[in-house]
């Protein structure tokens, strides 16, 4: 569960204030024009930016001042989610032990997740030998091994071709249901969620301008202002 109570952030020219909550196991899409504050919102929840005031509660705990590494949150970006000098096995192992020294039980967990993300035969490969989709699978696998129930995604599949992107969304939704993950996902492309009726938060100039399901969003008269199109 995610709760933001009057969370305030200021850049030189842009004020942002967020007030909303997301239930455990909910998938929420974040939309809005460029520069509206979508990435800032994710960074506040992940702890990369400290709010000026307000409270961030995650799974019932006040985490406003908690170090990002200690929050029950993983964040996946468009690119650069894997360490290029580490093998797939080591990238996954990082989710279990920063020292990369795994117990037998952790090895077992890693094998199960590698199988789940379809990378069992790539464990000794390095990221330079993987496709964009495979790299994102490694990153998702590492998030799952960290056992962090909140996943923040900032345009995670936008550099992939349409077919691969569709496959990755399918995998993501399957994993979300299996692990009851709470997901907040920024996207610019409405077609990414056309097959869902996800709850959508639309951010315009640092505030939530719309909060409702995809079908309701499509009925909005000012949808083009909302989406910056
Ligand atoms: N480091 C910074 N210093 C000053 N202003 C910043 C900084 N980072 C972002 N901003 C401003 O804050 C606003 C929100 O930025 P943010 O990256 O959160 O928007 P966004 O909705 O994710 O945009 P995009 O869709 O283009 O990625 C923008 O107006 C941006 O110019």
From TrEMBL:
GO cellular component annotations of the record: membrane
Keywords: ATP-binding, Cell inner membrane, Cell membrane, Membrane, Nucleotide-binding, Translocase, Transport
Top-level division of the source organism's lineage: Bacteria
Listed SUPFAM superfamilies: P-loop containing nucleoside triphosphate hydrolases
PROSITE patterns given in the database record: ABC_TRANSPORTER_1 (PS00211), ABC_TRANSPORTER_2 (PS50893)
Domain ABC transporter: 2-229
GO BP of this protein: thiamine transmembrane transport
GO MF entry, a single one: ATP binding
Cross-referenced PANTHER family: SPERMIDINE/PUTRESCINE IMPORT ATP-BINDING PROTEIN POTA (PTHR42781), THIAMINE IMPORT ATP-BINDING PROTEIN THIQ (PTHR42781:SF1)
Name of the protein in its database record: Thiamine transport system ATP-binding protein
């Amino acid at each position: 569960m995610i709760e933001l109570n009057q969370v305030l952030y200021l850049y030189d020219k842009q004020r942002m204030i967020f007030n909303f909550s997301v239930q455990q196991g909910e998938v929420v899409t974040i939309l809005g024009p460029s520069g509206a504050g979508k990435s800032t919102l994710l960074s506040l929840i992940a702890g990369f930016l400290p709010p000026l005031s307000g409270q961030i509660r995650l799974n019932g705990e006040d985490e406003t001042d908690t170090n990002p590494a200690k929050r029950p949150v993983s964040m996946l970006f468009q690119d650069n989610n894997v360490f290029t000098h580490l093998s797939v096995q080591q990238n996954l192992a990082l989710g279990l032990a920063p020292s990369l020294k795994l117990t037998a039980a952790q090895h077992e967990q890693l094998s199960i997740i590698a199988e789940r993300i379809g990378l069992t035969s790539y464990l000794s490969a390095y990221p330079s030998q993987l496709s964009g989709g495979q790299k994102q699978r490694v990153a998702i696998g590492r998030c799952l091994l960290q056992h962090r129930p909140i996943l923040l995604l900032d345009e995670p599949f936008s550099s992939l071709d349409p077919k691969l992107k569709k496959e990755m969304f399918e995998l993501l939704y399957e994993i979300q249901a299996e692990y009851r993950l709470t997901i907040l996902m920024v996207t610019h492309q409405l077609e990414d969620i056309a097959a869902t009726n996800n709850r959508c938060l639309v951010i315009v100039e640092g505030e939530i301008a719309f909060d409702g399901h995809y079908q309701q969003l499509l009925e909005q008269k000012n949808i083009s202002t909302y989406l910056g199109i």
